[in-house]
Acetyltransferase component of pyruvate dehydrogenase complex (Fibrella rubiginis), 602 residues
Amino acid sequence: MAELIRMPKMSDTMTEGVIAEWHKKVGDTVKSGDVLAEVETDKATMDLEAYDEGTLLYIGVEKGQAVPIDGVIAVIGQQGEDFQALLNGNTGGSAEVKPTTAPPANSPAPAAADTKQVNTSMRDAEVISAAPAADAGNATVIRMPKMSDTMTEGTIVAWHKKEGDAVKSGDVLAEVETDKATMDLEAYEEGTLLYIGVKEGEAVAVDAVIAVVGEKGANFKVLLDGKGGGDAASSAPAPASAPASGPANESGSASGNDTAEQNPQADVPANAATDLSYAGASENGHDANGRLKASPLAKAIADQKGIDLKQIHGTGPEGRIVKADVESFNPQTAPQAKPAAPAQPAAPAPAAPAPQPAQSAPAPAIPPVQPTPVAAGDYEDIPLTQMRKTIARRLSESLFTAPHFYLTMEITMDKAMALRGQVNAASPVKISFNDFVIKAAALALKQHPNVNSSWLGDKIRKYNYVNIGVAVAVDEGLLVPVVRNADHKTLSTIAGEVKEMAGKAKDKKLQPKDWEGSTFSISNLGMFGIDQFTAIINPPDACILAVGAIKQSVAFEGEIPKPVNIMKVTLSCDHRVVDGATGAAFLQTFKGFLEDPMKMLV
C-alpha cells in the first residue's frame, strides 16, 4: 500500500523545511533507512530518511522549494501502484474517487478489483454514515514532531490542554520528553482540542497521531478513520442485507459489498477508531501488501543469527520489527505453536497421541518457573527513559557499525599547569584543564581536516569549521552540547560556554541547536581519577578523544630523575574515515599545543 511522506518537524522552532537536495528520483527503489532528501531547517541541513520500503512513486516538491510541517512531499509504494486517490484523499478532494463506484456495473469481477483499489487509498464520504456533516478539512491531526536529529519517539510528560479546551496558535498543548530534554509542544492550528489519543506517560513514535484540533462539533473520527480504520456505524448492516443477489450488487454497490470492502470494520478491533496503534499491519511486521517492516539494524542482526524475520512479532511503530525484537526472539516458541494444530485432527481417532503433546508441553515449562521462587534478594525494574533508549541505540549502532581503533599518547602537562594559574588570574571565568584540551583539539583539527570529518555512507564529508562536542554527565545519562567554531574562541569564552551548557544539560533545558552539528567529540573522566579509558564514537563524528586524569610520574633527564605531570589521552577513530597514521599525526599536533600552550594564545 502506498504511503505518504510528509515534511517532519526536525526542531522545536521549525515551521517549514526547504528541500536542499533529492537523493532519490521517481522510480528508484527505496529501503528503510535510505536518505530520501536533504532538508534545510531553521537550524541545520539534515537528512530525511525513509521508514517504508518500496518504489518512490511521486515527488511533490522540487529542489529549493519550502514545505510547511506535515506537508506531503513524496509517495512510496509498489511499482505501478495507483497513488492518485491517496493524494486526492489527503487534500480533502474525493471528486476523482467517486466515479470508481460506477464502473462495477459491467461485471462482478471488475467490481471486486476496483473495490480493492478503493480500500487501499479511499476515504470517501459514502463510506461513513455521518459523512455529510463531517468534513476532514474542519479538523487537523497533531502528530509527534521530530524534535532532534536522533529522536525516534517521545513521551507525553503532561497535557496542558484537555479535550474541549479552546486552542490558539502558539499555545502549549503538552510537554514532551525526548532523548535529550523535555520540551513544549506548541499548537500551530486554532480551534478546539477535539481528541487526545495518547495518555500522560506513554511513548509515541515520531509522526504518530497524538491529538486532533478543529472546529467544535466536527466529526474528527472521519479524519482518524482515514488514517487507520473505518467507522461503520450504519454501513455494517448493509453488506449483510445484499450479499447474495447479483442485480442488487450492480444497482446498490455503494451500500453493498463495495461499502464492506471500503470500510472493513468487521476485520478490525472494536476500538480501532480510538486506538491509534492499529494501522492495519499484520502481527509479524508486514503491511497490507505483505512487505516486511523491519529496521536495517534488526535485519543485519537477524542475518548474523540466521533468524527468519517472518517468525518475529514486531513491537515498533505499525508492527515494525526493531533490534530488541530480534535479540529477544526465542526460536523454540515458533515450533511449539505448530504441533498444537496437528494434535486436534489426531484426537478423534486415536486417543493416545493427544495426551503425548500435552505431557511434553508442561515438561519444558517447569524449568523457567523454578528460578522465580528461588531468586534471592530484592530488585527493581527501572523503565527506560527516552534519553537512555537513544544512548543505547546510537552507541550500539556506532560500536557495531563503525570499525573502531584506538591510539593512546602521554602528554606532559607541566607548562599547561603553570600557564593555567597565570590565565585564571586575569580571566573573568575559571578556566579548567578541559578548556585547554578543547582549544588544543580545535587548533589541531584545523591542521588535520581528515580527522574533522564524517562518514555519510556514500561519501566522506570534511568540515571547514570546527564544532567540538563536549560530553556532559547528567542523572539520566549523557548529553553532548557543542562549542561552535572553537578554534576561533578564547579560553575564557570556551570556559564560559561549557559551564553554561553543562548547567542547561543538568536542568534538561538544552535545545536542539545546543547539541546538533558536532564535528569532533571529547569525553573527560579525569576529574573522577580515571587514568585512561576508551570512548565510543559519537556519530556522525569520525573520532572522539578520551581524556584521563593528570598524574605525577617520573621522567629521566639523562640519569637524573625528575617529577613530571602526565596526562593520558586515547583517540577512538572510525577506520572508514581515519587511518592510523592520520590519527597519530593529529595526536602529535595536539600534544605539541598542550606541552607548549603559549602557541595556543598567539
